[in-house]
Amino acid sequence: MEKIVILTGAGVSAESGLGTFRDEGGLWSQHRIEDVATPEGFARDPGLVQGFYNARRVQAAQALPNDAHRALARLQQNWPGEVVIVTQNVDGLHEAGGASQVLHMHGTLAGALCASCDHRWKAPDEMKVGELCPSCGAPSGRPDVVWFGEMPYFMDQIYDHLAEASIFAAIGTSGQVYPAAAFVHEAIAAGSRTVELNLDPSAVVSSFDETRFGPASETVPAWVDELLGQRGTPAPA
Ligand code: APR
After folding, report:
1. What is the pTM for the complete model shown?
2. Are 166 and 136 in contact (CB under 8 A)?
3. Which of 41, 57, 63, 107 is most buried per CB count within 10 Å?
4. In terms of Cα–Cα distance, which of 107, 142, 106 is closest to 123?
5. Is residue 196 in contact with ligand 1, taking CB distance under 6 Å?
6. Residue among 75, 104, 98 nearest 8 (CA)
7. Is the CB of 172 under 6 A from ligand 1?
8. Is 177 in the pocket of ligand 1 (CB under 6 A)?
9. Ligand 1 centroid to 175 CA: how many Å?
10. Which helix or strand (DSSP H or E) is residue 31 part of?
11. How far apart are CA 27 and CA 19, in angstroms?
12. Domain end marker among 118, 145, 172
């Protein structure tokens, strides 16, 4: 049965009120990446970094899933084959929208990681500088978010999924950060049909068979209805 692999980026959560990174006024116009999203930045000023993620953690916890998140969950529930969601996002809105199989390749705001012993636990709303690890007791707690220069999570599983994908969709991502931006090439090599659903053309838009422009809360439900309609699954009333 046809497997669908979906890559999402910040654009899928934009209409839930969470900022994107590279749009006008985005997070990277407010903060320098090297200060808040690198291990060196954390070593230099852990208070600045903890504060950056504390603010995003509180904001993400208050955000609600939008129709794009819900449509992807509906696709997972109704598609006869496997639907794998690989997200670059660190918010929990895919799960809040009802999705099950979600691979957070850049980690999650809800997670905390011990830089000393690799123990992981549920992050408190506000992480302090020198947050104590509940396992080894070292003052080495950090957000369990993948920073620039660090290896994204689940890469072996992701490449296995891409090698089996019949359909690959990239939703709400600018295609400027690797390895995610190259997933479309893996999918093409596997013979997938590829589609980009985005507000603006991504940096890798020319690699896709099809592009649908517009806000994710409109383009994603329409795309899911079409896919499920092809299978005779009724669209929601
Ligand atoms: N609907 C659909 N797409 C949207 C919407 C929307 N409402 N709003 C914005 N977009 C699109 C933009 O056109 C852009 O292509 O979402 C994309 C957001 O791009 P980025 O801000 O670069 O976010 P993303 O691609 O997820 O960044 C990838 O970079 O900084 C790192 O780790 C961070 O995971 C992040 C990675």
Report:
1. 0.96
2. no
3. 57
4. 142
5. no
6. 104
7. yes
8. yes
9. 8
10. none
11. 6
12. 145
